[in-house]
Amino acid sequence: MSPFLVTAAVVGTIGGAMVAAPFVLGAAGFAAAGTTAGSWAAGMMSAPAVANGGAVEAGTTPAVLQSVGAAGLGAAATAATATGGGATAALLSLFF
């Protein structure tokens, strides 16, 4: 496979993931108005909340997913994802 096709496939996949992330997180229950009751997200947030007396610590996976679900990916996260995708594409092009 040509390096160009590998690069295009990786960049396209990462670009699609960046666009789809808010929709996927919303469907999982990480909504703009908060975690949807009875959803997968609610179950995921339940364990750390019980362990911490009702609070979910900042920086934990459920907290970050809720933040992205509520506000979308910020400029820094979008840039980091795009940079990571570019680096991955460049690395894969060396092998294919």
What does this structure look like?
The chain is built from 4 helices and 2 strands; from the N terminus they run αββααα. It is mainly α and 96 residues long. It has one domain. It has a two-stranded antiparallel ribbon with strand order 1-2. It is elongated and about 55 Å long. The mean pLDDT is 76.
Mean pLDDT over all positions: 76
Major beta-sheet overview: 2 strands, antiparallel
Low-confidence stretches: none
Q: Strand pairing plus helix content: what structural class?
A: mainly alpha
Global shape: elongated
- The radius of gyration is 17 Å
Sequence of strands across the biggest β-sheet: 1-2
Number of separate strands: 2
Spatial gap, N to C terminus: 6 Å
Order of helices and strands: HEEHHH
Q: Tell me the helix content.
A: over 70%
> What number of domains?
1
Strand content: under 5%
- Count of helical regions: 4
